[in-house]
Amino acid sequence: MKRAVLFDLDDTLIFAYANPAPAWHAVVREFAEGLAGHDPGAVATVIADSTASFLSDDDNRRRWRLQAVATRRSVVRNAVLSAGFTGLDTVADAIADRYAAYREENMYLYPDALAVIDTFRARGLKLGLVTNGATEVQNAKIDRFGLRHRFDHIQVEEEAGFGKPDGRAYVHTLAALAVDPQDAGMIGDDLVWDVLAPQRLGMTGIWYDPFGIGLSADAPVVPDRRILRLTEVLDA
């Protein structure tokens, strides 16, 4: 039996940034009158596609997390400019800023998250929360959703000076919990950050797939377990 469980935060315990395309479309529609006659759907599609491409690079993902405002604005500006949408210089920044606020407004705790955490605690397991992102942003979510007192150790990327998939992110957390890798599991929605990297250290990697996407044929990793609902881990 495992002695400790490490959880990811965004899109594992809380719905935060998954399914970005519908969010971009909703935000751009709010600015429809300021788009200089351009079709909101076309503008939103270009921004969503450009953002997805930008975030496919790990270094860019880090910039998006830790230099959020400037990076979002730059990506949106470059997207509309590259697509030939003229007259959007001012509104592009407003769209980028509104997107962040929109995602925050629509975040919610997954219904079974607290029950799973509390059940593990009742069973005597040590619990760690390992999350990438800016300290202020991530701590606000942790407090907003009543998570802080439920974990024995919480580690935020900016505050720690390193984040997933850097091995130090997991090793430091395990040391704080006084648990060896083979006695711990990691649960999260990212196949590399929450499964492959922990597995390389000897941990169990559990992939949370709430939208039922499934593994692609060229997936870089095979999870020790795939779950569609958090409560499934209680059966292990």
Automatic annotation (TrEMBL):
SUPFAM superfamilies linked: HAD-like
GO biological process annotation, one example: riboflavin biosynthetic process
Cofactor: Mg(2+)
Key words of the record: Hydrolase, Magnesium
Pfam families for the chain: Hydrolase
GO molecular function: hydrolase activity
Keyword NAD: no
Descriptive protein name: Putative hydrolase of the HAD superfamily
Source organism of the structure: Devosia enhydra
